[in-house]
Amino acid sequence: MTERELDAAGITDPVLREAYDHCRRLNARHGRTYFLATRLLPVERRPAVHALYGFARWADDIVDALGTGADTARRDAELAALERELANGLRDGESAEPVVRALADTARRYGIDHAHFADFMTAMRSDLVVTDYADYAALRRYMHGSAAVIGLQMLPVLGTVTDRDTAAPHAAALGVAFQLTNFLRDVGEDLDRGRVYLPADLLAAHGVDRERLRWSRDTGRRDPRITSALRAFERLTRGVYRQAAPGLAMLEPVSRPCIRTAFVLYGGILDAVAEDGYAVLHRRSVVQRRRRAVVAADGLVRVAAARLRARSAAARGTERAPLTAPEPRMVEEVA
């Protein structure tokens, strides 16, 4: 599978191939929902997506997963080292770090604006010191770097049928919608890390504060005020999905099934949270495997249709057909 992706992408250097494979393994281990959706892309585009998400995953791990003994100073030093490595890699195209090497190659191949990576690193650094947000405006400023720029990085890889500037706000909104979904799903886990991403003014409007969340997490007891606040955050998140939705039709047809699948699966997490009674302080809500398989199968059908249309257009000389289609085995692997 990996060899096929790299061959299709024209990545021949052995060291670079290993760097991309390293990124792919990171995504397979950490990002199950989006890794599944990525399998719906033409194989030649998948390595770039793995590089972008692999880098984001690695930086996020520095912030969150260095172990309980890692203090802020150590995390700050690790991020500073990564920033230096990133700057050098983007400038020279070389790096001893596999993730940076793959990212730099992807940025060069697709002409991705380096400012997006700088904004992302700024957001990662803020996670070391900022533990809550007064209002949604403050949270959105943070999410520009932590989520919106991920959508903007992806856009050149996915391709558009409109000019990129028209599609960009929708791509940014989708990145934000995905992260808001994660914030809702992971309220309890984030609280254990000392962070509350739900805006303080939204919580206060429902009679909730950090101490009330901590009480519920520690005791396992429910509070209707917390449920009401979580429901309000879900409604806010669904509004951002609506802002993102028009962008799906602006993508190249061969990319739409991938992003639509991610759109539906992440939206399904919101459904799962609601169906679970907003019990996110006590357990993680997940999309059932059967539902995931149904969505993946629908994505495969859409890929086949897009490929057929592209072939017909190519025969008429109006569009280049994609090189390859996704593997039918994907639906079997969901479960």
TrEMBL record:
Pathway the protein acts in: Carotenoid biosynthesis; phytoene biosynthesis
Domain of life: Bacteria
Keywords, alphabetical: Transferase
Keyword Transferase attached: yes
Region listing for Disordered, in residue ranges: 316-335
InterPro entries in the cross-refs: Isoprenoid_synthase_dom_sf (IPR008949), Squ/phyt_synthse (IPR002060), Squalene/phytoene_synthase_CS (IPR019845), Trans_IPPS_bact-type (IPR044843), Trans_IPPS_HH (IPR033904)
The name this protein goes by in its record: Phytoene/squalene synthase family protein
The species this protein was found in: Streptomyces griseoincarnatus
